[in-house]
Amino acid sequence: MSMENIYEKFENDLNVLSENERKETLIKLRDDIDVIDKELVKLLNRRTLDSVLIGRVKKTLGIATYNPQREKEIAEKIGSYAEKPLAKEAVLRIYERILDESRAIQKEESRNDEPKETGRSCVE
Questions:
Q1: Is CB count within 10 Å lower at the N or C end of the chain?
Q2: How far apart are alpha carbons 52 and 45 in whole angstroms?
Q3: Is the pTM of this model over 0.85?
Q4: Helix axes 68-79 and 88-113, enclosed angle (nearest 10)
């Protein structure tokens, strides 16, 4: 069943539920969102780790971290996954934020890999 069909069925069913049933539905939906949020964070952590590792591989290959063509390809692919009630534009805005954070983390990781200044001369 598509998201759109689920939404329409829910709207129809909601009109026949008692107040207590609607309250129970509200609690269940919030519990579902809590589970989904936890899974989203796990997936974002996995994605971020892979992004960091990609940054490290790129560094060893002498490839720039930022690749606008690759990000364009990702956006096109991600946009094609959008389903109601989430519009393609909304998915792309969310994903742009994810990519921003991935770039920032890759940049921070890259800085952490640089030799640290010790304040001591190389010739002692």
A1: C
A2: 10
A3: no
A4: 150
